[in-house]
Amino acid sequence: MQDRDWKRIVMIGSFVAAAALVFSGRRTAAMAAAGVGLATLASEHPEKLRAVWDAAPDYIEKGSRLVNEVGGLVEKIAEKGSRIQGYRQGRTSMPDYLT
User: Fold this and answer.
1) Structure pTM?
2) Residues 60-91: pLDDT tens digits?
3) Are residues 62 and 92 in the same domain?
4) 36 and 13, same domain (yes or no)
């Protein structure tokens, strides 16, 4: 039982670290952490690894879509923020419908 516990901890920790690294922009390190998690998963549950491998294209497509949507949202927020800063500093005039 102890043998399975440490492997489970390594798997979960690796996948959580990979997710955190992806969101912080460190994709290479995230891939390495995910690789450690997958290797541990393969040693413990080869049938589950096969299921993950078969579903990988769908996961990649969904992940890419999520990253693109978040990136678009961040760009919109940055654009609105710079526009608001311009209004506050008097560089640009506010539209008539806002005054």
Assistant:
1) 0.47
2) 899 899 989 998 999 999 888 888 777 777 76
3) yes
4) yes
